Fold this sequence. Notes:
heterodimer; A: alpha/beta; 13 helices; B: about 270 residues; 10 helices; binds thiamine diphosphate
Amino acid sequence: MTNAKKPVFIQGNHACVLGALRAGCRFFAGYPITPSSEIAEGLAEVLPKIGGRFIQMEDEIAAMGAIIGASLTGFKVLTATSGPGFSLKQENIGYAIMAEVPCVIVNVQRGGPSTGLPTQSSQSDVLQARWGTHGDHEIIALVPSTIPEIYSMTIRAFNLAERYRTPVILLLDEIIGHMREVLVEPSDNDIQIENRPVPDCDPAAYLPYEQVPSDIPPMAAFGSGYRYHVTGLCHDETGFPTNDPQKIDRCMRRLNRKISRYADDIVDYRIEGNDRPDVLIMAYGSSARSAKQALRMAGDTDPRMALFQPLTIWPFPEKAFQEAASPVRGVVVVEANNGQMKREMERLLDTTVPIRLVSSLNGEPIVPGEILKAAREVM
Amino acid sequence: MFDYSQYLRISKFPHIWCPGCGDGTILKGLLRAIHQLAIQKDDIVLVSGIGCSSRTPGYVDFNTLHTTHGRALAFATGVKHARPDLHVIVVSGDGDGTAIGGNHFIHAARRNIDMTMILFNNFIYGMTGGQVSPTTPMGAYASTAPYGSIEPNFNVSELARAAGASFVARTTAYHTTQMQQLFEKAIQKKGFSMVEVIVQCPTAYGRRNNQRTPVAMLNWMKDHAVPVKAAEKMTPEQLDGKFTTGVLWDIDRPEYTEQYQRLVEKVAGDR
Ligand SMILES: Cc1ncc(C[n+]2csc(CCOP(=O)(O)OP(=O)(O)O)c2C)c(N)n1
Ligand code: SF4
């Protein structure tokens, strides 16, 4: 994989497979579930050919555990699932946060709760991605909206996981997971691959959870000569469980801070449309596609519209959104759920700015005309 | 005397176990077995779930992984699949390994992935204060079975054998020499090996079940254990209420990581 490749016409889930391989992922554990199974199937085919590891586990809990175990030996690891499986993974996602184990979890969203709408789209797991596992924590979650974005943001998900020693969630949805578009894999010069920081100290002096200035202690691989303890319990710098309130406080604050203090480096978003808008549309993932079409349909007619599209849903690009929304007379939030992000936007905005929701709960894509209508009505 | 300290994280002591608990006896047996086999500390990954027994890894100087309740085998599968050259040993309780972790237990055995599971069977949920477990004998008392358990219990070793493990053995915290020998055999065995160790929990089990002291519990083990060879010559009536000890099952079956490696060699370079 050196030079830019020929254009290929592929499915979103397949682009995720290619992105993962390009990022250096060599371990996948999963459990079949629509609409994500193509990711497991793609990697089942490729990984053995390149000496990587694939395994289909007995359930999603096991798959999440297996990737954490493999990551601890130094592998870049991936699992992919959808709603019901995402629920099952939550406890071990919290474990990866607590034990600071890099890993990437793809959730190709479908309708829920429960078995819901197995073959149709939804964006109703955005808050579960944020708060699905119990306890105080920070999380990184990315929301691509096109097939090339799925490819590049899969790579970015691995880079962020490695850089911050944390799980990263890639939120796709059935629409973009199964849609086909043209992808041109970039050349090596155009992508950056990051690897986790590893220790170079004397193993006897290694503190796996040290309070380092960056807040991200280097991570040794099991079997590399650094013997240490990993636990999901609150722990001290050695990794051993502790009940000392001071040590617990230091550990918990560092865990939260190591993401929050880098939020400006992590957040990513896009603004397009009129640069002096009356109405700001906030849309992400497949819904951003409908919003873009609404913008095209509106052309130069009133109201003047712009789109704010977060590419990281967590951390949310709060400052950029507040700036983009400050001069507008109304905001329209477009999402395939019952207003999960709208509530977040209400929290971020001045209460005098009216906010409208355009949503879809029935598995169907959002109709651009409805967005246009809401934009005209909101001010 | 054997110098256990060469394998221990002495600074992490005192341990959390109650006086008279048998978990430390199993730890000692494991360390002696590892020493006998001369396995390097760097090459061992000791994995556990959650429970009193699952606190074992914290005290030893290996690569140690204390996971979520019931999931030790899932994490261990990831470790072993990634690094087949490492020795993966899993320690688990009867609740951890056969209730919440029951699914992983049968599937690790079915895959026959090369690791050794040591199942600390104390017939009870120790850490959470004595609730009924899948191995609590019918009629025995637990905090959530105050009138005696009405559920049949698992025979853990039979379960492992039926699910596909290539090596299954049973011993007790009383039979320390046998314990060490079985651990050695299990660790050396290619494939999924499981050693069930019957162990005393005086605090949460004995107290409720008329075995008032750790010594009484160890004596019970001594009196009820029957070596497999001796059991062959005994009638079902003579064996009633007893349990067999020693190697219960030992066969050769294709091992998972070797099968995977074969697959890699077969398809390598195909595009
Ligand atoms: C998901 C989850 N459920 C429940 C618990 C609470 N819990 C901790 S240990 C334990 C049972 C331990 O019993 P066992 O596995 O038999 O080990 P022992 O303590 O007897 O060694 C339970 C239920 C937990 N930690 N996580
Ligand atoms: S509760 Fe039972 S198993 Fe737990 S440490 Fe005490 S004696 Fe051991």
